[in-house]
Amino acid sequence: MSNKRSINPQPARKLNKAALKRLLSYMAAYKGRLVLVFCCILLSAVASAGSAMFVEILIDDYITPLLLEDAPVLTGLMKALGIMAVVYVIGVVSGYLYNRLMVTIAQSTLKQIRDEMFSRMQYLPVRYFDTHTHGEVMSLYTNDTDTLRQLIAQSMGQMVSSVSTMIAVFCCMLYLSLWLTLIVLLSVVAILFVVKKVTGKTAYYFMGQQQAIGALNGYIEEMVNGQKVIKVFCHEDKNVEGFAERNEAWRKAAANANGRANAMMPMMNGLGYGTYVLIAIIGSYLAIAGVPNVGFSGVGTVTVGVIASFLTLSRNFVNPISQMANQFNSIIMALAGAERIFRFMDELPETDEGYVTLVNAKEENGQLTETAERTGLWAWKHPHKDGSVTYTKLEGRVVLDHVDFSYTKGKEVLHDITLYAEPGQKVAFVGATGAGKTTITNLINRFYDIDDGKIRYDGININKIRKEDLRRSLGVVLQDVFLFTGTVMENIRYGKPDATDEECIAAAKLANADGFIRMLPEGYDTVLKGGGAGLSQGQRQLLSIARAAVSDPPVMILDEATSSIDTHTEALVQEGMDRLMKGRTVFVIAHRLSTVQNSDVIMVLDHGRIIERGSHEELIEKKGTYYQLYTGAFELE
After folding, report:
1. What is the distance in angstroms between the CA of the first residue and the CA of the last residue of the chain?
2. Rounded CA separation 387/400 (Å)
3. pTM of this structure
4. pLDDT at 7
5. Is residue 636 one of the residues assigned to a domain?
6. What pairing do the DSSP bridges indicate for beta strands 601-606 and 585-589?
7. Which of 37, 282, 415, 593 is most deeply packed, by most CB within 10 A?
8. Is 373 exposed, middle or buried (0-12, 13-18, 19+ CB in 10 A)?
C-alpha cells in the first residue's frame, strides 16, 4: 500500500521569482513596518555615504586651513566633528531599527506560514502521508522555515541596504571625481570576475551540504530508535562505520560549501585593499600633476580631502558587493525551501461532497426526530432538493457491492469484493500480508475512494455521507497504537472531546484498562510522553480500546489489535474488545485465527479477492484454505 518517497532537492542557481513573489504577499500585511524599514535603510545608507563625504569637507575646509595658522581656532573644527558624530549616530540607530524590525516581521510572517501549513496539513488526504516520508514533512517545519527566517530577517534587509548604500556612495563618488569613480568601477568589474570564477558553484555545494546533513540526521534518528536491536545483534562497530561514512560525506560537502563561501569575504577584502592602494596612487598623481578634476560639483583640482573621502567611499562601495555576493546563495537556498513549503500548501485537500449528516435523535410513535441532547440514539439526516428532510436510524449495516480498488491506476488491489455486515455482526478478515484486509477498512472509512462498485452504510451510499460524520460513527483500534503527549485522561478523551471524566473512567473499565491506570504514579493524571514509552504494548492497546469505547460508535474496526502482545495480556485485551464489540457491527483483522473463531462471518482473502466466506465451523468443514491455515498446513505471513 505504502509507496513513500523522499524528494532530493536539485541544486538551483536561478532566483525563484514565483516563490519570492508569493513570500512577499505574506509580508504585505506588514506594509507600514516595511515602509519604516525602508526609510531606516535609506537613512543608514545616506549616513554612511554622508560621513565619507564629510571627510573631504573636514580636511579641505577645516584641517588644512588650520595647519597654516599660527594660532588656530578649533571652534569650527569641533562643530564639524559634532555634526559628523550626529551623522554617525543616525546611521547606527537606523541600522539597529531596521534590523530589529525585520526580525519581528520575519517571525510574524513565519508564524502565519506555519499556521497555514499546519491547518492545511490537517485536511490532506491519507494518500499524501502514505506517499511522503514523515521526515520530508517535518523538514518543511524545521529546515525550510529556518532558511526563510534567515532570508527575511537578514538577507532581504542586507540586500536592500547594500543596494541603497552602493547607489548613495556611487552618487557621492560622481560628485567628487569622475576619474577616480572610473578607477573604482574598473576595479569592481575585475573583483566580480575573480569572485565568479572562484565561487561560481557555491549554491550547488550548499545544496549538497543540506542533503548530507539530512542523511546524517536520518541515520542518527534511526540508530537511536533501534538501539535495542543494535545491542541484540552486536552491530555497534558496523554502525560506527556507517556513521563515519555519512559524517565524512557531510564534512566534505560542508568544506566545499563553506570553504568557498567563507573565502569570498577575505578575497573581496584583499581586492578591495588593492583598489584602496590604486586610488591613493592615482589620486596623488592627479593632485601632483594638477590634472583638472571633473565631477558633478564642477571642475577643480584633486585635493587631499577628495582623496581621503574617495578612499572611504571605495571601501563603502566594495563592501556591499561582497555582502550581496555572500547573501545570494542563502537567498537561493531559502527560496528553494519556500518553493517546497508552497508546494506542500498547494496540495489538494481531501474532497468531501457528502451532505448526509449524523445527528442525535429520539423516537416517538415510530418517528425519528432530531434533538440537541445526546440520547444514545443516532440518525442519518438526509436533506432533499425539495427542502424536505428524512431521517434514517443509524444501525451499523455495511454493504460492499462488487467493489474494485487500486492505489495506483491500472494496478488493482481489490477485485469484485462483495460482503454484507448486518447490525451487531462480527465480520473477520483473514489472509496473508498484502491480501487487502486493511485496504477494505480504509475504504469503509473513506480514506480512499473506490474505483468501481458501491459501499452502503445503513442503505446510504457512503459518498453521500459527510466524511466527518461517517468517521464519527466508526471506532478504530489499530495494531500500532499512537498515544499523544498528555495525561492518560486526555488520551482517552481524544475519542470524544466533550466526554466527562466519569465517561472516560467507564470506558477504561469497559476496556479492562482501569486497573493498571490506577497503579500509575498519578493515575489518570499521569502524563504520557514519547508515545507512551513507559507503558507496555498491551497497556497502550488497552488505552486505545478505551479511547474507541468512549466515543461509543455503532461500528468498530479492529486492525490486528492483539498481534504484538503476549498471550496473558491478549486475554485482557480480548476481554476488553469483547465488551466493546457487544451489540456493535465489528470488522476484525487478525493474524491469530484464535481471535476470529467466534465471528459470525469469516472472509478469507488472497491477492485482493475473497476466496472463502462462512463461519468458523463452515469453513473448517469445507477443508479449504481456512482449514489449511487453521491446522497449520499454511501459515499467515
Report:
1. 16
2. 30
3. 0.73
4. 38
5. no
6. unpaired
7. 37
8. exposed
Cell of 454: 458501491
Mean pLDDT, the chain, whole residue set: 81
**Cell numbers representing residue 497 in the block:** 472531546
Closest CA to 486 of 549, 531, 547, 453: 531
Residue in this structure with the C-alpha cell 516595511, named with its chain if needed: 34
Contact (CB, 8 A) for 600 and 432: no
The number of folded domains in the chain is: 3
Per-residue pLDDT band at 184 (split at 50, 70, 90): confident
CA 598 to chain centre: 45
CA angle, residues 85, 87, 88, in degrees to nearest 5: 65
pLDDT in tens, 10-50: 444 456 788 888 998 999 889 899 999 999 988 888 888 87
What is the pLDDT at residue 3?
45
pLDDT over 90, % of the chain: 9
Q: How confident is the model at residue 135, as a pLDDT? A: 67
Share of the chain above pLDDT 70, in %: 88
We report the CATH number of the domain holding residue 432 as 3.40.50.300
**CATH assignment of the domain containing 322:** 1.20.1560.10
Is 50 exceeded by the pLDDT of residue 133?
A: yes
- Helix-strand-coil percent breakdown of the chain, rounded to 5? 60, 15, 25
Q: Residue 487 forms beta bridges with which residues?
A: 527
In a domain, 32, yes or no: yes
Q: What is the pLDDT of residue 454?
A: 93
User: What angle, rounded to 10 degrees, do the helices at 537-550 and 501-510 form?
Assistant: 130
Burial class (CB in 10 A: 0-12, 13-18, 19+), 163: middle
Backbone angles phi, psi at 609, to 5 degrees: -125, 145
Domain enclosing residue 574, as ranges: 398-631
- Nine cell digits for residue 637: 505471513
